[in-house]
Structures are given as C-alpha cells and as structure tokens.
Amino acid sequence: MNTCGHWSHPVNTWSKWYSIQYSIQRDFEAALTEGFYFDGVFAFSTRYLMNAAPNPFLNIDGLGAVGIPLSERDARAIISVSAPACGSSSSHSTPGIWEIPADKIHFYNPAWDAWIQTKAGVAAAKALSASSSVLPSFSFKKLVIHEVSAQTIHHKDPINEDAANTKIGDFVTILPSFFQGAQLHLRHAGQTKSLNFAQQSGLSTSIVAAYSGVQHTMSGVTSGYRLSLVYDIVQPITHAEQRPMLPEMQGALRKLYNVMTSWKKDTSGEAPKSLGCLLQHKYPGTASLHAQSLAGADALLISHLYPLARQLKFRLYLAQVRLTVTTTAEADDPGYGHRGRGGCWGGHGYSSDEGEFGDMDSEIDVAEFEDDDDSSEEALEITRVVDLHGMPVTVDLDLEAEYLLNGTLTEQDPDTEKFEREDRTTATRTKVYNGTVLLIWPKDGDVDLSVAVGDIYDYACHALGVSLTVAPTKREEKLIEQLLAYCQTRPQETKLPRVVQVLRECADRWNDVKVLLRALRACSVDKNTHFLGVEGFVSAYQAFGWAPLKDFCGDAMKNDISNGRRYALLVRLTQMAREEEDVEVSAWCTAGLETILRFLGKVNAAQVPWLVHMGLSRGVEFLRNVILPQLQAQNLHGAFWIPFIQRIQESIRTAPAASSPLFCDLFVRCVSEVIRTLHAFPTQVVHTRTGSHAQQRREKNPMDIFNVLKLCVETKNEVLCGRVFAKMRDAARLDDFHPESPPWQYYADVCPRLIGLISHSALRPADVSIIFRPFFVDVMDSMVSTQFALAHTTSNGKTITPCPLDEQHRSILMLAARHAGGIVALKERLTADVLKGHDASTHRALAMAVAKGFPKDKLQDVDALGAYTELTGALVRAAIATLSAPFPTRIVPNRHGYPYQTSARHGKNSAPILEAVKLCLDTQNEALRGDFLPEFPPWLYYLELVPSLAQCLQSVAATPAINAAFHPFFVDAIDSMISAQRTAARGKTVTPCSLNDQHRAIIMLAARKAGGITVLKQRLTAETLRGRDSATLQELARAVGKEFPLQQLQQDSDALQAFSDVIVTLVRAAIDAFDTATLKKTAPSYSYYGARTTNSPSDHMLALVKFCFELGAKSQCQRLLLRFVPPPAGSNVARHVSDVLAPFLPMLQKYLVSKRLDFQTDPYKMFAAAVIKAFAEKVMGQKPHEIVPAAKLQTIGCDGCPECVELKAFFCSDKQTVSFSRVQGIRTHLERQLAVTRSWGVVWETIKVRSPHTLEITKPASMAAIGLWSANSQTGKTLLHVLGDPSTQMRILGADYHWVHARIHGNAMPLRNTTNTQNALKRTPADVQLSNPAAKKRRVQ
User: Fold this and answer.
1) PANTHER family under this entry (predicted)?
2) 855 and 713 in one domain?
C-alpha cells in the first residue's frame, strides 16, 4: 500500500524493474557494437623457409645484383649506395639504419611480386581483417638495412581517417640475412606482440604486417645485417569506404565504464543479476577454454573488459552453452489425397485394384514437411563454466537465449540437426546450436556467492601434468586440495586413474610421499588397486621404499574385493621383491596370497586361470575342500563353472595319477553345480537401437543347455544329462519358460547338435539309447503335441507361439524320431487330435517328410510298415477334412470411401484345393470337384491350380490311370477360360476370362497336359469362340502357333491336320469378329508428348492382312478383303472408297511386293479392280467446266512474298475460303493482287475483330469444284500407278480400263460396263466372289 492508502499496481513495479534491466542491457550492447566489432588482429607475422619463398633476384641501381642470403660484402655495398633513415618524429637520421627508395630497386624474378600479392600478402590480409571480403594490394615503398647499433627504435604510423587515404598499414618482408638482436615489440591498446626473427634468419624469409596506429619498438642489431623490404598495405580505391582500420577504443571503453558503474551503484535491486555476452567465434567443447584461447573480436573484448572488471569489482567467466530448438513439422499425405484448410480431405488416393488409399507404404519425403514456427520451443543449457584461467566452476545461474547480448545463437547454421517422424504426416525437427558466452556479474552478488569449484578433473590434471616445478607452488597446493576434495565428494571412476597417475608423478618430482598417500586414500585405491596399477605400486616402492607403503598395501588386501586385482598385485610385488632381494616384502606377499585363497571375494570367469593354478598347486584336495565350498556358496552359473571345469581338464595331465578318483569326484560335484544353477530354458538380454531409441529384449539362449550337455559328455558324466532332460520336461509341463521362447525352439536348436555330440561318445549304443531316448521323445512332443504345436494361452496367461513345422523343423522332427524309436514312435505322436488344427499344406509337408525320412521300400519290420501306412493315411484324411467347400473362398478387407471406412468381401481361395490334390497325388488318392459361386467363376481357380498341379504331376510317374484321372480337369480348365459367357446358370453376371498373356499361357499348359493340339481342336470351335473380339482371337492364334511349332508336328499327320484346323478356325473367327466401325476415317488424336495415338483404317486393315500371312493362312485373305468392301454404318460408297479403300490400296501393294506378290494375283486382282472402278465412278464424276484457265490462276500474286504464294495455292485448291490475319500493309498488298479476280466472282472483306485484322477471301463454288476434281484426279492417277504400267493396268481392269482411264484423266468418254461394278460394291461380302467360288479348300500354307 502506498502513502495515499492505495495499493500500488504490480505492473508499475514490473515496468520499473524491466526498464532498469533493459537499460543496462541496451547500453552494454551498444558499447560492444561501437568498438568491439573488430574481428582481426592488430599485427601478424610468419616465417617461410627458403624452399617456400622465391628469391626476388634483387637489383639496385648503381650497384647491380645482390645475392640472397645476404653476404657481408653485399651488405656493405648496399650501405654504400643508401641514405641514412630518418626517425618518424624528427628529421634527424637514425644511427645504424639505411634505406633506398623503391624507384632504385628492381626485382628480376616476376614470381616475387606474385608471391607477395597472392600468397604472403593474402595470408597477412586475412589475419588482419578476417571479416573483410576485399583483398588489399601491396605497394613497394623502400629497402631498409640495419647494421650493428645499440639504439632502440620507436615507430608509430598514425591512423589517418581521411577517406582519400587508402593506406591500411605496413607490410615488412625480412629477406634471408644473418643477424642477431633486433627484437621487435608491437603494441596497441594494451595488447603486445613480441617477435624475434634472429633464429635461422639467414635461412628463412619472415613477414610482419601491422595496422597503422600500432607502436613498433625494435632493439638494435647486435651482429650481422638485417635486410628488409617495406610495403604499404593499400585498400583498392574502388572500395576505399570499406578500408579496415583499428577501432578507436576510448569511446567504447568510456561507455562500458559508465554502464558498469551504473550497474554497480544501483541500490534498487532491479538491476540484472548477470549479463551474458555471446562471443563471435566457436570454440570446441573438448578444447581447453580460457582467456588466452580466445581469438579476434573475442580476445579484443576480454583484453579491455578484464581491467574494467577488476577496477569496478565484477567477475568474468566463460560458459559454453547449447541451444536446442524443437519444431513440429507437418506434411500433406498424398496417400489420402491432401488435407486442405479446415481439415477436409480432397484428392483421390483410392486404388480400385487393392482397395487401399494410394501408396500407404512409402514414406513422405523429408522435403515435403513444413515447419510450424509457432510451435517452436527453445531450451538453453549451460554445459560448462570456467574462469578466465580455465578452472571449471559451478554456478546457480538462470540464462535465457532471448537475453543474450551481442547476437543470437540461431544466426549461425545449427551444429546438429535431427529429423524424427512421429507418424506418417507429423515429425519433429530438432536443431542444436553450440556457442560460447562471456558471463559478467557483480562481485559478492547472489550469483557470485553461488560459485563453487566445478568438475576440475581435466583442468587440474592438465595443469599439474605439464608443471615442471621441483616444489609445489601455493597455486598447485590449492589445486591439489580442490582436486582431492572433489575426488572424495564426487568421484568419477573413469577419471580417478588419471588423477592418481598425475599426483604420483608430482610426488616423485617433489619427493613428497604424503602427496601420494593422500591421493591413494582420496581416490579409494585401497578398494580398487587398478586405479594405481601394479606398475604404479612398483614405481612408488622404488621412489619411497616399503615402509611408508606397507600399511596402505595391507588395507588394499583387505578392502579390494577383486581376487584378480589382489592376485596380480601380489604376483608383481613378489617378482619385485625377488629382484630387489627384499625379504620383508617377499614374506608379506606369501602371507597375502594364502589369505586370498582362503577368503575369496566374488569370482568370475576371468579369474579362472589363476584360481585353478593356485588351487592345484596346493593339491586337488585343497581345490576340492577349500576352494570349491567357497565357489558353491557364491551361487555361480554356467558362465563360470564351464570354463572352470575345462581349465581343470587341461591341467589333469600335470597332476599325480593317484589323484584321479579325486578328480572324478571333483568333476561330478562341479557338473552337478552347473546343472543346479542352469535354468531349464535360459534366455539372454539383447540390446538393440532404433534411431535414437535404445531397447532391450529377451531371446532364447539354447547354447547354455548344449554346453552343459557337452560338459557332461566330455567329463564322462553322460548319466547326468538325464537331470538336464528332466529339468526341461518339468519346466515345460509347468509353463516355466518365456512366452516368446517356447520349449520347441530350444529342442529344435539342441537336437541336431546333441546328435553330433553323442555320435562320438564312447558309450555302448544301448547305453546311449537309455540315456538320450527320453530327450528325443521330448523333442517330438514339443513340436507336435497340442500343448506346443497349436497357438493357445497357458494357465498362467502366457500366449504360446506354435511350432511352424516348416522344412527345417520337419527335418529335426524326423531326426528325433529316428533316435526315439523310428516311425512307430512318430506315429504315436502324430495322432488325429494333434493333426486337427493344421492345414492341408502342413499335412502334405509332413507326409512328404515321412516318406523321405522313412522310405517305404527300406522298412523291413512289419510294425514299421503298418505304422507308415497308418500314419500317411491319417495325414491324407486330415488334409481332405480341412476342405470347407469344393471352391472355397476367404474373407478379405475392402477399404473404400473415407480413409477409415472398411468392410469385408469374399475372395477366391484355391490354396486348400491345391494342397489337398497334391497330397492325394502323393498318397495315390482321388481328386475332388464341385460347384462354384457366380462371383468367383471357375477360371479364377483354374488360373492358380493349373500351373501348380502341372508342376506337381511332374514329380509323379505318368501312368495311364493318373493321366485319365486328370484329363477332365485340364479340359475343364481350357473350357472355363475360353468361354466368353457372361451369364451364370443362376442368372448372375459372370466376368469372363480376359485371355491376357498369363491366361493364354495357362491354356497352352492345360492343352499339353490334356493331350496336345488335338484337344485344342475339339475345344476351339466357332461356337466356343463366339463373343471374343478380333484382337483377342489374333493373340490366341499366335499363342497356338508358338506353343505347337509346325516342325514338331511333321511326324504326326493327325496332329498336323489338327493344327491346320485350329489355325483356320481362329483366323476365320478373328476376321468375322473384326469391327468394321474402325473403317471410318477419323481425325487422329495426339498424346501429351505430341505422338500420334490413333491408327488409320488402313493400318487396321493391313494389320489383319499381315496376321493372315503370319499364321500361314493366306487363303483367308479373300474372306478378309470381302470383309473390307461394304461401307460401315453411317458411311456411303463414295466416302468409303475415297477415305478408306483408296488409301489402303498403296499400302497393300507395298506389302504384297515384300511377299513377292502383286495385284495380278487373286484375290488381290479383283479387289484392286473393284476399288479403282468404284473410285472412277463414285468419287471422280464428270470434270467441271473451268471458269478460269489453270494457267491464268498461276499469274495471281507477286513472285516474292509468302502471302502471295499461299494465295496462289488457294485458287488452285478445292478450298472455298482462306483468311489472312496480317498488318494493314500486307492486307492492302493482297487486295491489289485480288483486283483481277473480282470478275471471276471472288469476294473479300476485312474482319475487324482482333488485331491484326483478318482479310477473308471467298471464291465461287465452281472454282472450288475444279480444285476438288483435280485433287481426286491426282489420287486416281496414283491408284492406277499402284497397279503397274499401262499394260498391267489393262490386264487387271480388263475392258473397263479405257473408260476408267478417261474418267480419271478428264477425257470425254462414255461409261461402259459400270453396272456390275456398282452392284459388286453394294452386295454383301458373302455374295461377292473375288476368285473362283468353286476353288478347292486348301491346307493352310
């Protein structure tokens, strides 16, 4: 409440706090952008060896060539022609420095200037200004030579901010010359760079580059001569405004001082607790981070900010941060159409063939996903904080990305990017940005008080490891205190060995055993001697002796629970004691070893070698009576016991023979312990990774069982295998196993391995049978009994996966049966109840496996034969019993409409029939047949059954009985597929077989199996083929010709005649089914890519002619040509002859020539004559009167322009109208040319609808008629030419030749004998005879 009695508004308080905080942040960031943008260095230097820098081949006016490296003689000669150098601040010369201006210096090697401008200069320019995109040039200024002098030189080239000045700084090249001294110090704004080029000065070329404004201080040369070339670094005049220069820091520093002072003096409590300034460069997270590791603008900032922070009592720290940006991404689903705005579905993704929506299995491309920026979430994490020396610290600091100064992390490319799909159309995109932040907060503030020593393992180990001090400094003592405290409070086992090693080396260097002992205690080396290592103990002994280490080593023997580590340490100390002849250490080791063996810690398989060795070295009794009870008490498993027993077996040959009974007793005890701890059906954990998700699952581990059985056999304790078998049997009955790994999986894996193992056993066969037969009976039971063979749920709710009884498992079943009593034992397991739940395919597979595993001809025993017959019969009966109907169906999902709407429909299911038929063939039983549903006509079933049954019959001896039994099946298959019937017996619509490539292949296969070509002759009749289209019949005829080649039928006259009859029937049917509606001339259509897609009538006609020739049925061409003669509905004789028959005649003539025939051969002669006569009479007509002579028409228009050429063509054509859309000048030109035609009845007008206007010209109909007649006359002449020369034309046309010729050529001549031609073209194809109707029927050629 305020002084007026009113509550103060909380928004005002927040606004005040925000205003103060924002003001400090804003002013601080403004100071940074004003002076700390510079991202280069104020000076740069490097050195090139002589093979990396060219020789300039220096030449000086008045002196000549100068050798490099510089000799003393040449140096004196240069000085003799040089002038004394003047200081930068006075006109007085500087002693010991001489110079020659650039105009007297020449470089005879052109590679020198190129090297300066493109290599050495570029390296310097990029270092000085890393952000500049414009490279400067280097202008040679003078040569300078320094001789011995005691005077220190100071030089500073002032910064000139004049825009006309393009100089950036100085570039000095120190040529190879031997000298000492001349140390150079470059200083700017509190930063110093010290350089000494004297070392190897005669064998290298050195360069120094610095900005104007940098202070140069160089001591005198103490010996030799220093030769250098001085260049000006010049900014290109075209980019003078971008000239880089050193920043003026005073203003920026003053602003920083004011901001930090204001922040420090704030007493309102509203100032920020801390500020975070994003550094411009990236620093790897694994690198050592400290102030000296910063570069460019970051180094500039810290060098100026650190003095201010100390003065104003602020803390500076460096933090590495990680910004994680998570964004939701979505994509439209093409499989469901697209989801538009408002969530509505559009598009069409439904596939009628499968009832699915588009391609639902393919993933949507990542590029199709769009980020939803509104859903982005940012999380900033501080991964490491260090002080300016690199010491890790922890601090209670809440840093947010939006409050970072000096830029944002997301301005750069992400360091990592991950795209994870959540479902088909939704995903998450995660981008990670790493950066480094300079943290600033007031000393003794809340944040500062939370600072504590962080994870200093790496920092301290590095600092102490590189130290060379002979006694610890105060800083090192403090560092050790912090490190050891950290090891005790927050130990990290992976880093403790490194700590121990570093502190042991420090203790050696400082000769201080207390440092070592403190480190050993703090790092818990007494509990894990591996941290120091056995060699570390030896090194400590050699450095400090046994006395200071004895107590600690005793503690290690008590506290380290690892037998292996303790044993390894004792072995190495024993060896060392022997080498050093130290009796005390040797006695201590002997006592320690005895203690280890009588008080064993936790053991594992890795300790087996030394454990067996030490135990047997004291005798078998010691191993059995002392060590074995300790091992049994630890409840160890096979992973230890098996290698333990194997190791003992390997050592038996070295043990005394008298100990053999003891070994046998030891083996029995050990093997019994293995069996006791063995799980009946062991599993193992398997780790998997899917993307970024780690998963684990349990899998069966049958090898544990087999290894135990193998151990029993190898140790001659086969009788103990019975305990394993009983354990498995009892667990299976009690459902004591993992539901995903039922017992049959273990038995299937162990069975073949065990058979191989016992095949080498030394036991008598009778003993093997007694011991192992129960196991093989269990194998069969696990695979075929109702408990495991069929899917079910156990009493404790476990769902059991049944044995699939595939080829592998059937093979194992037969193996187990042979070792369990043969076919009789198998019959006892495969009962009717067991077989009831399997399908016909399983029954057939089992029957085949029985026939293969127990061949009937090798069964001599009466009981075995009886068991075989009974078992196979049971399998056949079980298979037939699975048939629910002669033509069974199945329920299949049917998706339609909206994506989530599904329904069910019936589909054909021929698999049960096929399996039953196969099984009947295998067991010599009969096949079954029956009715069908109209929705699923028989040909759909035969389509699947014929290939499979034909393949099945190949494996059966082809007896007359089998052929007779299946002949009706294949005949029915042919009939069902050939029939074009569309109505079923119950009046329902039936879809006939489409007779595609697959169907035709099935028909041919069925014909082969049913009796060959003679069967096809009986089935392929005009009646059965009725309803099929011509194209289908043509393909069927080709399939017959391919399946039954003539050359294979030459020896069988009946087959040859049957083939001829089949071909004739199919060709006749194809001709009769030809659709004459295709003989109408239509405009061609074009595909998307411009290709013509509609065949002309002539193409259809010629294709049928070729078909007849291809099938050897040339005699049927007469029937075919007659089919072409009548005009189709909707056409007339004149149009049919002009548009269809006339274009077809030249194509037919060309094809006949390719077959060595012509139009003088029937039936082509009569067809050609009839077409040409009809063309002359019906198409040509009388020649119209010429209003304008043709010669005069050729004079219309000029001779040059394309429009007049087109105009002239128009007057000679049958067109009545032509249009020209042209500019006015061309239209006027055309109208002038048309002036002479006005008297002919030609008219024209200008249509002013669009620009340019259109000139439309119309000529009289009489002029168009003469053009049409001329075009037809040309076609008629072409037709006559197709017949041949005039004599050939006369032979083909006969007495009608003269009037046809006169009509086509326009000669006046009366018509003769035209009535017969007209009537011929009007009669039906059945009445028109183009050859002798009494011609004898011939066999197909």
Assistant:
1) FE2OG DIOXYGENASE DOMAIN-CONTAINING PROTEIN, MYND-TYPE DOMAIN-CONTAINING PROTEIN
2) yes
Write the CA distances from 1310 to 196, 1316, 1321, integer angstroms: 125, 16, 21
More confident residue, 522 or 841: 522
CA distance 1313 to 702: 102
User: Looking at the predicted structure, is the pLDDT value of residue 144 above 90?
Assistant: yes
Our separate counts of H helices and E strands in the chain read 49, 36
Count of domains for the chain: 5
Q: State residue 651's pLDDT score.
A: 79
Q: What is the pLDDT of residue 232?
A: 92
Using CA atoms, how far apart are residues 166 and 161, in angstroms rounded to an integer?
A: 9
- 891-936 tens-digit pLDDT: 555 554 444 444 555 555 555 555 555 544 443 333 223 345 666 7
Q: What is residue 607's three-state secondary structure?
A: helix
What is the C-alpha separation between 49 and 231, in angstroms, rounded? 20
Quote the tokens at residue 413.
Answer: 């490319």
In a domain? residue 467? no
Rounded-to-integer distance, Cα 945 and Cα 943, Å: 6
Residue 1133 within any structural domain of the chain: no
Based on the fold, state whether residues 642 and 713 are members of the same structural domain: no
Phi-psi domain of 568 (left: phi exceeds 0; alpha: psi -120 through 50; beta: other): alpha
Task: Specify whether 672 is located in the same domain as 707.
Answer: no
Task: Let me know whether 623 and 699 are in one domain.
Answer: no
Q: Which two tokens stand for residue 781?
A: 């039971």
CA-based nearest residue to 216, from 87, 39, 98: 87
Between CA 469 and CA 878 the distance in angstroms is 92
pTM for this one? 0.42
CB atoms inside a 10 Å sphere around CB 768: 16
Average pLDDT, the chain: 80
How far is residue 1113's CA from residue 1061's CA, in Å, rounded to a whole number? 11
In a domain, 779, yes or no: yes
Backbone φ, ψ for residue 619 (5° rounding): 105, 155
Is residue 648 within 8 A of residue 663, CB to CB? The reply is yes
pLDDT single digits (tens) 1107-1150: 999 888 888 999 989 888 888 888 888 888 888 898 989 999 89
Q: How far apart are CA 1330 and CA 1035, in angstroms?
A: 28
Tell me which of 211, 244, 277 is where a domain ends.
Answer: 244
CB atoms within 10 A of CB 446: 12
Question: Is residue 1294 a part of any domain in this protein?
Answer: yes
**Of the spans 346-350, 872-876, 882-886, 1169-1173, which averages the highest pLDDT?**
1169-1173
DSSP structure class, residue 837: T
d(CA 639, CA 623): 19
* pLDDT of the residue at 68: 92
Residues 753 and 859 in one domain: yes
Residue 1111 token pair: 């099938």
Structure tokens at 1049: 């039928």
The CB-side HSE value for 1053 (13 A sphere, CA atoms) comes to: 0
- Do 714 and 828 have their domain in common? yes
User: Whats the size of the chain, residue-wise?
Assistant: 1341
- Provide, rounded to the nearest whole percent, the portion of the chain with pLDDT above 90: 19
d(CA 935, CA 13): 82
Q: Let me know whether 864 and 954 are in one domain.
A: no
Q: Are 553 and 541 in contact (CB under 8 A)?
A: no
The pLDDT of residue 412 is above 80? yes
Instruction: Give the range of the structural domain holding residue 636, as residue numbers without chain letter.
Output: 600-677
Distance CA 27, CA 263 (A): 11
Chain segment 720-739, per-residue pLDDT in tens: 888 999 999 998 888 888 88
Tell me, yes or no, whether 723 and 799 share the same domain.
yes
d(CA 556, CA 225): 68
Dist CA 772 CA 784 (whole Å): 19
Q: Residues 1039, 1044, 1046, CA angle at the centre, nearest 5°?
A: 120
Three-state DSSP class for 490? coil
1117-1124 helix and 1164-1174 helix, angle to the nearest 10 degrees: 10
| Nearest residue to 705 via CA among 670, 738, 743, 733 | 743
